[in-house]
Here is the input.
Amino acid sequence: MDYDAFFGDAIGKVRAEGRYRVFAELERHAGDFPHATRYEGDATSEITVWCSNDYLGMGQHPKVLAAMKQAVEKVGAVVLERELAQLSQSPTVADRRFCVPLKENAPPVAL
Here is the structure.
């Protein structure tokens, strides 16, 4: 079986239907919530981000940052990543950031 062709065709169909998800390349500005820079090819633009996983700006709260730094200094980043993966019942924490449609015409939702 030609897997490249098979998956290439499947992805092509999803793109043609307008369901292919492209993630924006964003760089948040620490200490300047909710502002960020968006990168599109060689162009950049300043934007305001109101995303559901940090709509209160707690990702930049001094107590949250201090707790994160303390945890990394205590156990290291790899150990912390494993513990977070176990808590989220995921092979890796990175798996948790992807979105998938639950059914054919449903909007993507975070896992």
Summary: The two ends are 31 Å apart (CA to CA). Residues 30 and 72 are 19 Å apart (CA to CA).
